[in-house]
Design a protein that fits this description.
With 486 residues, the protein is an alpha/beta fold. The chain has 15 helices and 15 strands.
Amino acid sequence: MATESTPLTAHAGGDHGGRAMSRRRQLITGVMVGAALAALVVGWLVWGGGKDGSDVDVDVPTINGEALFCGLRNHEHGYISLPNRKDDHYFYWYFPAENATGSEPWILWLQGGPGCSGVAAIAHENGPCRINRDLTTTLNPYSWTKRANVIWLDQPTNTGFSVGSNDEVDATEESVRENIYWFLQEFLKKHPEFLERPLYLAGESYAGHYIPATAHYIWEQNQKSASGVPSLPLTGLAIGNGLTNPIIQSAHMLDMANNSYNIKIAKDEDLSKAQEAVQPCVQQIEACQTNTSVCVEALQFCQTSLMAPFVAQHVNPLDLRMKCADVPSSEGCYDFKHVTAYMNSHAVHKYLNVSSRVKEWQECREDVELRFLMSGDPMKRFDTQLVDLLNEGKLRLLVYVGDADLMCNWHGNLAWMEALEWKGQTAFQTAEEHAFKLSNGTQVGLARDSPQMTFVRVFNAGHLVAMDQPAVALELISRFIDSKPF
């Protein structure tokens, strides 16, 4: 019988670099955000000048004699100016499906953070080309473009290569959802063929906020059927290791102390002290739902109290199997400096026609994240945004979770799904848990499947499932798109 410790598919290029500290903010709530929250322990309208960045590339420049991005040519990149904003320009990178037949769906990938670049996911997760530590590149045999047309988006405003006015920055899901909606509408003007194809929103970590909020906004706008604005063909949502209901998920934050990897990640006395903080934490987050003024305090208390036992033992909060060389913040201790170096090379900026307003590409922007933290957005729940769409009976939801993750662990994700009140609640609650296997028969996790809602616990993976288990991630999204059982 396979278990969480069973070795699975090796990484497709690159590695974790797990013992080096870096600026990794691919997650959720508590992080080091500077003086304002110092008490936290863990803390196609082309714009920008130059050639039209949306054209299929012909001449591919090189770094150290190697063609950029694996020499791939069939892709599109550039800026889309948001029609709902005065000076907001979202950078996107679109790769069409490989061996396309003309019927493949399209996926919009949203990275977490808040404030982490979608382009980063191309480099070390589910894109067609991985960037290696020596700045060479390797084709990813498990790219999601094997099954769909995929857009990787840099958002919110000023994330990654995206640029915008400081007067129009984002701090809550209200602006995020509207911006993503109008980005999609503008993208469709360039690719009207996608109007008749299923649209999937996918992402990880803080996308557990972005995706439900955006999906509900799309649903609302589709009901209005405004003249000249097409309905978006939203079909499914896929959330990996997401933060969706912080009330329930915080209540399960300590569950990973007893993990199937048999790794002791905290001292008993520290866990006992943290356990005393669980109920006060839950109460504070509940109060935040109706009183935003207490949300920052709730964030500070919960993350400081509940993560303390793990931080004290230098455990990577994004992958309990890893120890950090230094005391980690909740950003973990991954090392992606090679990706940053690659993306900031002159050749890449020129090739992608990056705006001159972008002085430096950062995988995750602290200033973007800080605005969200100070608004109280991380402690708001967004699972209820899914109810209208699920009750309509047309939309399907996939939640997949690497079971070595502490911050957005599988216990909490399964718990909020079971607790969500909608027409199919009983069907999901009573669905039988069963082995999730690849086509070769290898068990790679556990699944619970109902007609509209699926939960998959992925073995041998942390917060970044597509990086740790790329073959499994591709199998997940493929079955979801094909409506095949898990």
